Amino acid sequence: YSGETTAGGGAGGSSLICSGLTTQPDFDGNQVVITSGDYKGQARDINGVTTGGTVTPHLNFGGVIVEGTKFIITAIRVVPAEVAAIEAKLDHASHGLAALKALIDALEGKLDRQLFSMDFWSDPMEEIQLAAAAGTKAITPTVTIADLPADATIVRAIAMLKFRMIENTNAVNANNLDGGTVANTSQVIQVKETAAGSYTDAIKFVDTQFGLAKATREGGDVLIGSIDITSEVDGNDSYTFQWLLAKAAQDNLNFNDCAVGLR
Predict the structure, then answer these.
(1) Quick check: 155 and 168 in contact, CB under 8 A?
(2) Which residues of 135-156 are buried (b: 16+ CB within 10 A; e: fewer)?
(3) For residues 157 and 118, what is the distance between their CA atoms, to the nearest angstrom?
(4) Alpha helices (runs of H) in the chain, residue ranges in sequence order
(5) Closest among 35, 25, 29 to 2, alpha carbons compared
(6) Residue 91 Cα to chain centre, angstroms
(7) What is the pLDDT of residue 2?
(8) Are 128 and 137 in contact (CB under 8 A)?
(9) DSSP label at 192?
(10) Do residues 256 and 127 make contact, with C-beta atoms less than 8 angstroms apart?
């Protein structure tokens, strides 16, 4: 619709008057645009019934719309109430933009706290032999931890021992471990930083573990330690292992094709 005002509008630009609107359909919710006069180009959403000849804008025009001002009414129908409803939804405490941002921030925080595990293994060692006389066994291949990001934090570390076969070489007697782990003393696999550090317990054993009949070979296993060794294993480095005062009940208990690892 295009028209021309037939009287001066409300104070402060609060309305425009056009008697021709009384014969037109209601334009509430459409948009009115001033096309002449001092406020030419100003556009406002219509906020109220127009069939009485008065157009009420959702925000005042720049000043009084005087008689003889030309205007058009477009087909755009966005009323202030609808805009307010949208704004209210966007501002809603539990599902508005701020709430969405809080959820995204929380998700980012959880992603930053994800835990990943990585395994690092030594080269293989042909045999670890335990005799009836207690003796500390050096596990010569070292384990190298490499390529951890500089900002990575190790929250838990454990040691592993893998062996392909276990053998009791005694042709007369059954065999097994003689004595369980005594912390920091005997019958325990320990690990330390190769160049420095101190050996710390990593894999424990119990008395009579690895029971085998005389002259018997059995398939191996992977032993996974239960001790958190982050006090010693704390980043990219080389790590050395030993079996402190290992002891079998008989000569000999052999672990074949071994490797040690860190997780």
Answers:
(1) no
(2) eebebeebbbbeeeeeeeeeee
(3) 10
(4) 80-91, 97-112
(5) 35
(6) 27
(7) 95
(8) yes
(9) E
(10) yes
**For every one of its 263 residues, what pLDDT tens digit does the chain have, with 9 covering 90 and above?**
999 999 999 999 999 999 999 999 999 989 999 999 999 999 999 999 999 999 999 999 999 999 999 999 998 765 555 666 777 888 888 888 888 888 888 887 777 667 889 999 999 999 999 999 999 999 999 999 999 988 888 999 999 999 999 999 999 999 999 999 999 999 999 999 999 889 999 999 999 999 999 999 999 999 999 999 999 999 999 999 999 999 999 999 999 999 999 99
Short-list 137, 111, 136, CA closest to 126: 137
Distance CA 148, CA 145 (A): 8
Unique residue bearing structure tokens 């003393």: 185
79: left (phi over 0), alpha (psi -120 to 50) or beta: beta
Q: Determine whether 71 is exposed, middle or buried from the number of CB atoms within 10 Å of its CB (0-12, 13-18, 19+).
A: buried
Helix (H, G, I), strand (E, B) or coil at 238: strand
Q: Which long-range contacts (CB under 8 A, 24 or more apart) does 182-187 make?
A: 185/244, 185/245, 186/134, 186/244, 186/245, 186/247, 187/244, 187/245, 187/246, 187/247
